[in-house]
Fold this sequence. Notes:
This protein is of the alpha/beta class and 500 residues long. It is 29% helix and 21% strand. It has two domains: 6-156 and 356-489, FAD/NAD(P)-binding domain (3-Layer(bba) Sandwich); 196-328, no CATH class. It has helices at residues 6-9, 31-43, 61-64, 76-79, 95-108, 197-207, 231-239, 242-266, 268-283, 286-292, 311-317, 402-423, 446-449, 470-476, and strands at 20-27, 49-52, 115-116, 121-127, 130-135, 140-148, 172-174, 189-193, 212-217, 223-226, 305-308, 321-325, 328-332, 335-338, 343-345, 348-351, 364-367, 370-372, 379-380, 384-385, 391-393, 427-430, 438-439, 457-458, 486-489. Strands 1, 2, 3, 4, 5, 6, 17, 18 and 21 form a nine-stranded mixed beta sheet that branches. Helix 2 packs parallel to helix 12 (402-423). The longest helix has 25 residues, at 242-266. The two termini are 29 Å apart. Mean pLDDT is 92; it is low at 1-9. Keywords: FAD, Flavoprotein, Monooxygenase, NADP, Oxidoreductase.
Amino acid sequence: MSRRDKSAAAPVTETGAMAEHFDVLIIGAGLSGIGAAWRLQQQRPGASYAVLEARSAIGGTWDLFRYPGVRSDSDMFTLSYPFRPWQGDRSLASGESIRRYIQDTADEGGITPHIRFSARVVAADWTADHWTVRLAGGETLTCAFLYACAGYYDYAGGHQPDFAGLEDYTGRFVHPQSWPADLDYAGRRVVVIGSGATAVTLVPAMAGTAAHVTMLQRSPSYLTVLPGRDVVADLLRRRLPARVAHKVARAKNILLTQGFYQLARRRPERVKALLRRFAVQHLADAAYVDEHFTPTYQPWDQRLCVIPDADLFEAIKAGAASVVTDHIDRFVPEGIRLRSGRTLEADVVVSATGLSLLPIGGVTLTVDGRPVDPGRHVAYRGVMLSSVPNFAYCIGYTNASWTLRADLSHRYVCRLLSYLDRTGYVAATPKETPGNRRPLLDLSSGYVQRALDRFPQQGDKDPWTVRQNYLLDVLTTPRADVRRDMTFSRSTAPVLEEIR
């Protein structure tokens, strides 16, 4: 993909006006988008690019979520960028400190001037060897390569079940994804519906202020206790240069998390017993643990929830919080009536009922005028789509920090762009080989299962599989042959094949 003379060869819009053209357009200015821009500047100096951010600020997820206690459930030595050491004192960091870290990275790297805020991409069409990208405000840009780094959450709203009788409820009802700034829950009775990462974060964060917080769950989730500070990393940072300490702490945490995941998949009963022992140790009530913290599924069939410094267990022990495992019958004026007949009185109900997933940020893609349905395509190396040229998307691991795979994806994209430049090709299109297909995401969590048909599938052999194994990927992805199962083009011939 040779960089073209913008004044002589920039594409024109439907109205005949000259469109602003870039070598690469990056969708999203969150953790992934800023990382992609950094790698692009580092490995492709001189390439023209812009970052298109739908919101008015940097940060993505970490700017969107503002509920009490919002934090990372991955350690920051693996969630942070490998090229910019994490200097914070908390390994499981607050959302605001992560947002500042992303902002500081963009400022330090000279990326911020390349970001266009309130620039929501609604559609992109590939034709004549370039993408025409349309923004919600009507502006049109073009690029040679399009890279979607918008994550997989639907920023417009989270998952909200249709609760019977909700219109009868006289208290305050909120969803964590749209947390109201004016919500005052001091001295009030709060019920948090859910048992996932958001719920186990909210309950201890609100428990110190509310009169009492009840976590209402249909079924338990597995929880693991981790220290909020990484004492080994703190020791390393006192003894070693910052970058060296960061690399060692990062390697240590990668080995621990990947090792624990493999143990959970190979010896689930052993891990279940270990997690139960941790919970009993903190709560000192085996019967309570068996009732409320013993799931029916196997560890890592769903993402493991982390509670830093056992804060949820401590809130329960102190009497500031409690857990109820039951099903909702309906809302009543004073709160929630359960199937058991019990009524939970609540001044505030927080519906931490999960997220809604949205592939490639909800952008409508077409290739030579034909619509692209991501659910009918296959993931190529976990970063491109079969039969879609010069397009990549960023998606993280389900069993490790998002950034680990994201950074591998950024580096792969840069290698592919360099190959196009060296060879004079203008387009690279993954060509699917025959084989079985299976879902891209391998979790049984409700928010994943609800959206599986909207996401790309994966095949049964390399490079069409999406591994959940960073240790293997970090060895193979940087050396992966960018030519394998790839069709390269110097022409403007249509490239989208029939999708089976």
